[in-house]
């Protein structure tokens, strides 16, 4: 697994300048997202690990490797392909001078994919991870662009199934933003923000539109914002359009913020157990966050 930094910069610039809605920085083989060694089953089930990857943690890896919940079409099947997706436009975050650059994050994402393969030796799905970049802050927008991109790619491979079914893999902090009305209103005081939010999410989850799902990792402990988020998600939880899963007692406590904070302190090595071996090596090599 490798990517050229020059190629990654070129594709990143293409997305940031609006010349391309989405680019794949890395694909594991020419037939991706179709299986490499078996006939494809319709519809293709594709998971998207959507994060800022600043840096990727073992919680990201656990979420990416979690089995597909037995819900909806193709219940009992695992995902056919995976995408680790980096958005260069986040609804809540801007790039700081101490953060890893987007190219560094893409390189760490590739290392995370390598560690996923090492962790799942012999598992074909572990060799089905692509690395992508998109310039889109909302999940409704991401789903629309991903579906158009994937349909065109699959058609070019001579295969025409129904549209792929997308499952976004998120942490609870991201789900809180997905279900926050303030991101959907025309202004911070828009009285119709909540109605607009539910209208957008109905499009995201509806079988007649994007037909997507969200799988979200639970946190170690509950909080008031989490309770409010799950209350707004109630109807989507009951329809199994949003599904909560456990990724491990330790992993659910890990955070990228804790890693960056530890790396900012002299001689604090607590971060080392929160990342995969290849990502740890890269952070040290690039002298990130210190």
Question: How does this structure look, described?
Answer:
This protein has 290 residues and is an alpha/beta fold. It has one domain (5-286): Rossmann fold, CATH 3.40.50. Helices cover 37% and strands 14% of the residues. The protein is built from ten helices and seven strands. The chain has helices at residues 5-16, 58-65, 102-119, 139-156, 172-178, 193-205, 224-232, 234-238, 256-263, 277-286, and strands at residues 22-26, 45-50, 81-87, 129-134, 165-171, 213-217, 242-245. A seven-stranded mixed beta sheet has the order 1-4-3-2-5-6-7, with helices on both faces. The radius of gyration is 19 Å and the shape is globular. The model has no long low-confidence stretch (mean pLDDT 89). It comes from Mycena maculata. GO terms for molecular function: ATP hydrolysis activity; nicotinamide-nucleotide adenylyltransferase activity. InterPro entries: Rossmann-like_a/b/a_fold (IPR014729). This is Nicotinamide-nucleotide adenylyltransferase.
Entry summary:
The chain has ten helices and seven strands. With 290 residues, the protein is of the alpha/beta class. It has one domain: 3-Layer(aba) Sandwich (Rossmann fold), CATH 3.40.50.620.
